[in-house]
Automatic annotation (TrEMBL), chains A, B, C, D:
This is Acetamidase/formamidase family protein. InterPro entries: FmdA_AmdA (IPR004304). It comes from Micromonospora fulviviridis. Pfam families: FmdA_AmdA. PANTHER family: FORMAMIDASE C869.04-RELATED.
């Protein structure tokens, strides 16, 4: 029988770094964790008049960290997301001064004044599986598919670092990729005893690249099956779904995020299939899929993916994805409704 | 009745620049062009022993340029691809010294010797709609969907420039995006009288980003319906399909290709829907799709797309896509088989 | 005796591309060319009320191209600048919409409106060797050293291309580096018969990186000694002065311009000294100097330099720099006056 | 009378992050600190046979952190380097696998095997003020000026982060700029009570950009005058010398490091002189100097500088540089000897 850990964070237990905090709970490999996450505004933006720069002190709180029993540097943490469901019937987005891909920022520094700070409130209809955008300067209402995901999933980084939850990197963190949805299994290399993973930043949906810097931010209820692969290192975050294997890179410039993700997909493919390295490079070149996660965070993210039908018969990490799906109660994989990938 | 221009290039008529050449034929707006394209090796790589650096003098020949009657700077050229079908039952790929995303190049200059130059021969089965990869260092054979596309579609550039067909930019050129497939309509801003468009670089299929620098290269038979929108400028290449509108950016670093494509999608969306600019930015942020075309050419490309179902009722360029589909004989839109997007 | 070619361009002879034009004159290797260049505005911006976007049709005219007798692809063109002297006692600068490093541009595309377009008029006092900046929003007058240079020096590109004079690349072009001053020798690889070199874009002075996109633009009188090294290729523009050897790279992102320049300096150093490649890499790492030329043009430029005192006894290109200095009448090398580093 | 704190770290007191550690000593503003730093290898690389990847567990130890009494977030820490002198008569450099600008790295991920790991031992002659390079694959010995500097100077970062000492960012850290030499005053924004600054990574000399990733690494004896500007924030690291004011940016891609540094120089110039913003932009454009510090660390650095003679009469931070020079015993500013530019 699967054991379950239930944890609901108090507001003062929310964390803003990966690393630098003791665990809030211990989890045995093979267990389920039932928890919830606040939105990236800590819930402080509730109407279109709540400007984030005015009402927020800090951004992107995570729930955790959780100590996984037996996890040690060199292992791989496995997080299978059984359910990610909105905890509210509304979500918020915004433009934020000097943040986003189409504005000067503190690093792409420019002499322009910031774009207008503006907030949007989306209605979320979980039953109908839709979110509705309401324009601020006209009467347009635009319906989009509900596609819940977690923007931030990570472990404590290596080398004694503590990193802001705004940052994605080899330890995971603010990956901001729509690929972390219900039914997906995330693999993360362990850097410290107990792994100390944390999650947050739920999005009711998100465009690829999160171009304005903010998705449809909402609190989430999350059920995640936790497991551990001993003695197998994972250099960069990876994701497995029923249909695909996915490698994620985080870097600037964006081509380096692309390079990292493709390099990991090529070497992973070579290892899974027995293909020689340049032969695997060729497979990624013709069958590989790619998309940006975010092009706004301190490091940008891209994923590289290949369909399992192309790599017939591979069983990454010894089939743990299939095992956890069963533990998790056989969730149907939720695929991007207007994506197909 | 639709008039048809048929043109088959002789080898000495193939061109290696956009700009700098007189037209090979004139086309009236509203006509069909039936033609063919050589592969990026000029057909010189026919076995795995034909190393491109040895057997090729130049790369990426195009068919054309074609003079479109009445086209003037400030107009928009419309190319609806009615059919793109492999002219051979084989396609070639390769690693090429100092070319590709996971190798030092002449611009990302490094002290490493080049990766091994290696050639792969794919079998193409048009009836079964598959291509088969044959590994060079093992016995693997991997079947992938046939998804024919043109990598290179462009017009003569502005300012008296002549640009290598290896280069993508605002004039189109070597965009290397799988989105230019049968059923797609491409929009290009006209820079010179007659537009002087040319096409080439057929791929039996291509991964997103074309990571090793070379797709499954093959000659193609192409039928394209040609039209002209007078007095409407198009700043960067755009594509319309039955389901999506797509903007393409070309630049380095890759985030600038992303920015250009998203900026164009945001402003185009605002214009099509009447949404105010930041409201349109918000729609792109939540509903926008993005992927790299190439991350290996002198400029990288990315596309930004949004589903027409999201932007209900828009008719870009006054519905020319639908009109040309009818002229072209109602081709079925061929969608990426393992993509869905 | 040194032969001299004198050429003063008429306005309708100014050119806006490298490549695509016949030569205006022939020059024998070993000759002097006495000529002049217009400023980047074609002389149309004469007061602070002449906004470039209103009064200019095209930018960055060059004088030429000149056919160098006997020059063939694979040779190296040598241009020793004996004198670069302002032809006017005023120079103009400006902010230009969507151009410059601290503003959104057409490639670093942003949703901001452009920065204000503003023009500045500098007084040039050639006798006192100063230029004076006059602020537009206050009474400040700031005196700076006069340091005349040419921003644009290039040959016709390879592959049948014609490139805008705004662009720097392997063929030279709009390098926008202060290193091309009186006393400097520029080396450029020849791509077409006759080399077809052209020059322009005089700056009374320029900051490193030309951050706003426009230097102190002025017409120049130029005397250049022309020579040819047969059978020796030069991959990227190089410069030699009495004190330094310098390699220039042009690319985006800026680190690739850095990489190209350092890679060329390392390999050139290895060839000049007999040092093994990684030993030469080490010398560049500890003794190499670097600075940006422009961080605003379609490709950015950086140079890599090393002092000849470090590489004792080297004679690049068989001592042609020293020979041309004598032909040119032993000009004193003009070094950056406030360039104390 | 100036009070002096003397601190010599034991090996187990060396630190590898900024943030995450308690102070080793307290310092009153206006005091001198006399201390020493280990080299980036922790002293473990002593001969050319000591490969860093074999003999080192961690890299780039710093001495500190030091708590500055009264320092609070929003203040500016002032560090005037009175003396930086080599503590040994030898220094080490190396190529390190997947590190440096001309090699594939873990972020600019490539399929090449790493370049050869090789170590060089330099002799340092402090009296003669020279360092001597000894080639490994030939008999060359090359003499270069001794120009001691500290690569790593920083404070605890904001937001509860702890950052590896390999990383430069707004908190300073591994800036790797030759501008931090004897006679220079460094300004850093304070993020946590006490500032918690630390220093390390002495270089006997370094090329601009540190192209192979490793300078002439050596232990240093350091005397630094410490002061505090209350209530004045400093957004990015700044340096003042007798002759120049300098802003430093840290980012990838390199143009963003350039943008940050230039943006800070422009706004700082505007504030110091009373020039309006675009007028100050113009001054930086014509008089600004720029160079890379490192193009190899997790973030690259560039500086932007302007001569004080250009900005006549400015007294940054109320003249603290001049005051600390007096406290420090009037050190002569040591300028780059071959830095003629």
């Amino acid at each position: 029988m699967t054991s379950t850990v239930t944890y609901q964070p108090r507001e003062d237990e929310l964390r803003y770094t990966f690393g630098g905090h003791p665990a809030v709970a211990e989890i045995k490999p093979g267990s389920l964790l039932v928890t919830s996450t606040e939105d990236c505004f800590g819930g402080a933006v509730r109407t279109v008049d709540d400007l984030p720069s005015k009402v927020c002190q800090a951004f992107n709180p995570v729930t955790g960290p959780f100590h996984v029993l037996g996890a040690e540097p060199g292992d791989t943490l496995v997080l299978h997301f059984a359910a990610i469901t909105p905890a509210r019937d509304w979500g918020m987005s915004a433009t934020f001064p000097h943040f986003g891909a189409l504005t000067g920022t503190h690093t792409t520094a420019m002499l322009h004044p910031p774009l207008e700070e503006r907030v949007w409130c989306y209605s979320i209809d979980a039953a109908a599986e839709i979110v509705t955008f309401h324009a601020r300067r006209s009467d347009h209402a635009i319906v989009m598919p509900l596609e819940p995901m977690l923007g931030t999933v990570g472990v404590a980084p290596a080398g004694g670092e503590a990193r802001s939850t705004i940052v994605p990197d080899a330890h995971g963190g603010n990956l901001d990729t729509p690929e972390i949805r219900s039914g997906a299994t995330v693999y993360l290399g362990v850097n410290v005893p107990g792994a100390l993973f944390a999650i947050g930043d739920g999005h009711a949906r998100q465009g690829q690249g999160e171009v304005c810097g903010v998705a449809v931010e909402t609190a989430m209820n999350v059920t995640v099956a936790v497991d551990l692969i001993k003695g197998v290192a994972t250099p960069w975050p990876r994701i497995e779904t029923d249909h695909r294997i996915i490698s994620i890179g985080a870097a600037r410039p964006l081509e380096d995020a692309y390079r990292i993700s493709q390099h990991d997909l090529v070497t992973w493919t070579a290892q899974l299939t027995g293909l020689e390295l340049l032969d695997a490079y060729q497979v990624a070149s013709q069958a590989g899929r790619s998309a940006p996660g975010n092009v706004c965070d301190p490091l940008y993210t891209m994923h590289a993916a290949v369909n399992k039908t192309i790599l017939a018969g591979v069983h990454p990490y010894d089939g743990v994805h299939q095992r956890l799906r069963r533990i998790a109660g056989a969730p149907r994989e939720q695929r991007g409704k207007d994506h197909g990938n």
